[in-house]
Amino acid sequence: MTDDVSRVLLVDDDPLVCQGLELMLGQAPDLQIVGSVHDGDEVVTAIHQHHPDVILMDVRMQRVGGIEAVAAVRGRPNPPRILMLTTFDHDDVMMRAVGAGVDGFLLKTSSPTQILDAVRNVAAGESVLSPRSARQLLDHVQRGAIPGRNDARQRLQTLTRRELEVAQAVAKGATNAQIAGWLFASEATVKSHLRSALDKLGLGSRVELAVLVT
């Protein structure tokens, strides 16, 4: 981010949805819409062109869906953060999105204020879930229905003390700035510990980490 303004890329196969989001988010002084594309296969090219901080993306599109596009984005160095905005709140869709490495999952029925707050929070390094999605995710955790979770939990033992402290703070919903304050460290140091923890655990996002440590 530059000068406290987050650059946002919109990805939705409905041009009217993109226009509505652009009107809504474009009024916020701390957000800048840098572009919009209408299919998942255009996302990587758009990242090269626009260098977004946050991607606001639909799940289902005509050629390449959002979840498949997430995998392509996550394969890049220093990928932008991803907030999935969708009409689909089915368990399988949400779990696939979380497994792919999204940083947030929000329904299109959310209010403008909720969407604005979600974009800002994701840009700030937080994870965002709609209340319904959070309940569904908790149900999956309690049932042990998240693939690979047991293996990842075993790998928790490989984390350093600092990495584990950061992971536990993420599970409480803390931002990088808050964690830095608690640990008397810089945000850059927190980010480094977080990235190391995610790599060791084979995870792609803070959401997955929060689920694992919960």
UniProtKB/TrEMBL annotation:
Question: SUPFAM superfamilies from the xrefs?
Answer: C-terminal effector domain of the bipartite response regulators, CheY-like
In what residue span(s) does the Response regulatory domain sit? 7-123
Entry's CDD domains? LuxR_C_like, REC_NarL-like
Against Pfam families, the record matches this protein to:
GerE, Response_reg
Q: What transmembrane ranges does the database entry give?
A: none
Keywords of the record: DNA-binding, Phosphoprotein, Transcription, Transcription regulation
Residues carrying 4-aspartylphosphate: 58
Q: Which PANTHER family match?
A: TRANSCRIPTIONAL REGULATORY PROTEIN NARL-RELATED (PTHR43214:SF24), TWO-COMPONENT RESPONSE REGULATOR (PTHR43214)
**In its UniProt entry, what is this protein called?**
Response regulator transcription factor
Q: Which organism is it from?
A: Leekyejoonella antrihumi
